[in-house]
Design goal:
The chain is α+β, with helices and mostly antiparallel strands and 190 residues long. It has one domain: Cyclic phosphodiesterase (Cyclic Phosphodiesterase, Chain: A, Alpha-Beta Complex). The protein has four helices and nine strands, in the order βαββαββαβαβββ. The strands form two sheets. It has a five-stranded antiparallel beta sheet. It has a four-stranded antiparallel beta sheet with strand order 3-1-8-9. A hairpin with a 6-residue loop joins β8 and β9. α1 runs antiparallel to α4. The longest helix is centred in the middle third of the chain and has 17 residues. The chain is globular and about 45 Å long. The N and C termini lie far apart (34 Å). The model has no long low-confidence stretch (mean pLDDT 95).
Length: 190
């Protein structure tokens, strides 16, 4: 089964990011937008695993969560990988909570590697993917819209308390992925 570990977002944050997606859609760019109900902050993509590895990963998640305090995340920016002028992935960035998500992701990476899952090639970056470009149709218009929306987005006060990390199963379908929660591990209350 295909799996990943993430921080779920509250409905009001997903709604705000959905409104942002709608503003960017006016560019007519060829973007595969993440369905609002699927928007999350990925801590570790695992990929296909069997039941034995699943059990190991669940124990790792539980162990890490019980030793980490809950924390707040604040969304502060909109950007793109590899860069704004040449977008391939469109994302929302965070400032508050960045060090905590990086710390959890690093620990997940190290512990899960010991369970036989390879480490990521690139360093972890705290971000929330909201869309991926399929082609460069209307790219310039999209970049212009991103720059306009960026200023507006910084005035939003999107902050939430992270109280758990979640292991998801991802089933790929022609209509897009379907996510199913396999395990929620609670962080320590502060």
């Amino acid at each position: 089964m295909r799996t990943f570990i993430a921080i779920e977002l509250p409905q009001e944050v997903r709604d705000a990011l959905s409104r942002l997606q709608n503003q960017l859609k006016s560019s007519g760019a060829d973007v595969k937008w993440v369905a609002p109900e699927n928007i999350h902050l990925t801590l570790k993509f695992i990929g296909d695993i069997d039941d034995i590895k699943l059990d190991k990963i669940i124990r790792i998640i539980e162990d890490i969560a019980k030793n980490k305090n809950s924390f707040y995340i604040h969304l502060c920016s909109i950007g793109a990988f590899p860069k704004l002028s040449y977008p391939k992935v469109i994302w929302a960035g965070i400032d508050k909570g960045d060090s905590e998500t990086k710390e959890i992701a690093k620990e997940l990476e190290e512990r899960i590697e010991k369970a036989g899952i390879p480490k990521e090639d690139r360093p972890f970056s705290s971000h929330i993917t909201i869309g991926r470009l399929r082609s460069y149709l209307n790219r310039e218009k999209l970049v212009q819209n991103l720059e306009n929306v960026m200023r507006e987005f910084q005035t939003e006060n999107l902050e939430f308390n992270v109280t758990e990390i979640t292991l998801f199963k991802s089933t790929l379908t022609p209509k897009g992925p379907i996510y199913e929660i396999l395990k929620e591990a609670s962080l320590k209350a502060t």
